[in-house]
Amino acid sequence: MNLEIFHAAVDFRNYPFKNLNLLINPVDHAATPACIEKAKRLFEVTRARNLMLDSGGHSLFGAEASGKEIIIDSSLEIKSDGKLNLSPSQLIKLAGSIQPNVVVALDWPLKETKTEEEEEKEFRKKLPINLELAKESVKLRNEICPEIDLLIPIQAKTLEQVDEFMQGLSGLKFSGVSLPFRNMSAQMMVLFLTRLYQHGIEYVHILGTTCFAYTAIAAYFARQGRFELISMDSTSWKTSANRSSGFMSPHNLLSCKISEQTRIPDSLRNDCRCQFCKKMTFKQVAAEMFTPRSLFLACHNACVTENVAKDLYKNAKSLTQLEHYLIHKKSSGDPKVKQAISALYLAEELKDENINVLKTAIE
């Protein structure tokens, strides 16, 4: 199967099962030599099937939003005197040390904006920075760890910006790209993936979401062979469990709260077949103390996220098959699912046409 799910925010106290795909953040997991050794032990304990080293862009995004000083100095540690310090050299050297399967190049994420003019200005401001970071990352990867796959984050909000970004990467050798997912609609996701397919990209990683509709889109592009590999990641398996005692549906990943205050009818059965739900009723889950309940829910959530992705891939042999699976069996009327299906039908018909034809049809 050329669709992979990575789990972010894994630690020793909270890893769902062994032989999973891990995504780690350099700031959280590898900011110091001690953190690096701890991360290596985590990989051994979890027997990670695949390991992806993230760019640290999310940390830059948060630091910029909070007004924290950001520097790019390879001679200093990642965290230095209350400042956030990240450089391509640090990231690629770290990759050489911990040997992930994939490393995401350092990038500077685009801030959220209110108008198209502000959006374009933000893109213009950071485009030269992001292209320079990409070029330096490619150079260092080739020198230090050429055996590790390198993904370049596409920091763009429109199709025109995607094309300009890709033009700036012309001549560079890298394994694929990552799409930082922030407020992207189902239609825009289909447009972006179609355009990347037209650009000849072979590997796409979708950062920050594994929700049902978007996983369905990824499953269809993967099953139809548009890309050699599509992968996705999120922290929702863990945050849903820890913040709101959320039980993610084994059918469509919708989350519902199960706690000691939840009123559960006797007739409501737990039909999840994951390895953690065997012989567990909803009332038994609700009766657990918070810590063991959160751990159970996190393990369940991670497991069903992978299972749902496998089911979507299995049912994406054709678009009509996927539509039937989504609409009639699993989606519970989720509007994003209907939007995804409509956009996929148009993309299937127009995938080899000028991208603006598809954009006009979808809009």
Structural class by SSE content: alpha/beta
Large-scale geometry: globular
Give the fraction of residues assigned to helices: 40-55%
Radius of gyration: 21 Å
Oligomer: single chain
Distance between the termini: 32 Å
Following the backbone from N to C, one meets helices and strands in this order, namely: EEHHEHEEEHEHEHEHEHEHEEHHHHH
Tally of helical runs: 14
Strand residues, percent: 5-15%
Unreliable stretches:
none
Major β-sheet, in short?
A: 8 strands, parallel, barrel
Kindly state the number of beta strands: 13
Q: What is the mean predicted local confidence, pLDDT?
A: 91
- Major beta sheet, strand line-up: 1-2-3-7-8-9-10-11
What does this structure look like?
By secondary structure, the protein is α/β, with parallel strands linked by helices. Helices cover 49% and strands 14% of the residues. It is built from 14 helices and 13 strands. It is globular.
Write the layout of secondary structure elements.
Elements (H helix, E strand, L loop, with lengths): L2 E6 L12 E4 L1 H4 L3 H14 L3 E4 L3 H10 L3 E2 L7 E2 L2 E3 L2 H11 L3 E3 L11 H29 L4 E5 L5 H10 L7 E5 L5 H13 L4 E5 L4 H12 L5 E6 L1 H9 L1 E3 L6 E3 L24 H6 L2 H25 L4 H12 L4 H16 L4 H8 L1
Parallel strand pairs: 1-2, 1-11, 2-3, 3-7, 4-6, 7-8, 8-9, 9-10, 10-11
Antiparallel strand pairs: 5-6, 12-13
